Amino acid sequence: MNTLFMPTKIGALEVRNRFVRSATFDAGADNWEVSKWQMELFSNLAEKGAGLIISGIFHVVQDVGIPPWQNLLTEDRFIPNLRRLVDSVHAHGSKLAVQLFNSGRTAYRRLSPLGIEALGPSAIKAGEDPYFEGGCRAMNEDEIWTIVRGFGEATRRAREAGCDSVQIHGAHAYLLAEFLSPQSNRRRDDWGGSLDNRLKLHREIYRAAREFAGPDFPIMIKLGVADGIPDGLELEEGLAAAEQLARLGYDAIEVSQGLRGTDYAQTEFKTAILKREQEAYFRDWTKQVKGRVNVTTIIMGGLRSFDLMEEIVAAGDADFVALCRPLIREPHLIAAWSGGDFRKPTCISCNKCFENVISGGRLRCMIAAEN
User: Fold this and answer.
1) Is the residue at 370 inside a domain?
2) Residue 346: which CATH number?
3) Which neighbouring-strand residues pair with 53?
4) Which residues does the UniProt record annotate as the domain NADH:flavin oxidoreductase/NADH oxidase N-terminal (predicted)?
5) Per-residue pLDDT tens for 142-176?
6) What is the pLDDT of residues 256-300, one digit of tens each?
7) In a domain, 364, yes or no
8) Residue 102 φ/ψ, nearest 5 degrees
9) Torsion of CA 334, 54, 267, 110, to 10 degrees
10) Does an H or E element contain 153, and which?
11) In a domain? residue 33
């Protein structure tokens, strides 16, 4: 059997193959609840061969202005529909992890029109940061601990719903990435300054989640190990952060980018991935993380060629491979590869799917829609 299709474990969790559907925001919730549309989407991904499916974002704290097409996991009333989603995935032999999330200062887009300041690690005035067009105020101690408790309670709800794991979102310019980056975290208290202090939020969230999860429930993290902008988090600090979090107990690290820049080239979703040498653009970062931790490592970022994914795993550069955009256009890809059809996806990485969900549309390939 091909290595990519061999059962592999994340902590105590056995996954049927090494293919992860990376967390993909789908804008498909119905009044903040898991919708029938999402159940069909996830069931199809499971039926077509994904070993582990990581959901799009689930907010852990109720906030003003969160649109109803985004998922919440802030109250027990959200558990029943999440349980139905889990059942739809388990029915086809796949596993489901819920990605737990707080937007941090990026919430300014929905809060500013309401006259409310977004919250971040440090106060930043609008126009002060060339890579962040909004503004925010610094979170106080109580607000930080509210977020920590929110991640813990959301983990409890995920486990009660039958989920197989949770993934803490620690990348892509959102709250945990903001705390980790010295560019956005300018605090002088226990939550800022040294790397150890800037990781305090990550540690406290893990402890809160583990309290509810128990010892056998995998807690993963998507970690931005370097920023996409000058004067941000450097890779060496990001690697040291990964080491600390692995020692703490996180069961898997999906390696990605932290703060974003102003164009796609400075983000985690780079465009026009048309040649083999443009693929796997986080391979080196992932390889370095893999060499410094003793927990499961997941690679993402422009993966397209089946033989390249084989090579990455065979070389020991990662344990799992994660796909996002190709599975939006062709959810049957993994099943096709399993059947011996190793052709490349037809996804051209145009990011129109991303732009569509940001504007309020549901997840779909816009090129397929145009055709």
Assistant:
1) no
2) 3.20.20.70
3) 21, 96
4) 4-334
5) 999 999 999 999 999 999 999 999 999 999 999 99
6) 999 998 899 888 999 989 899 999 999 999 999 999 999 999 999
7) no
8) -135, 135
9) 140
10) helix 141-160
11) yes
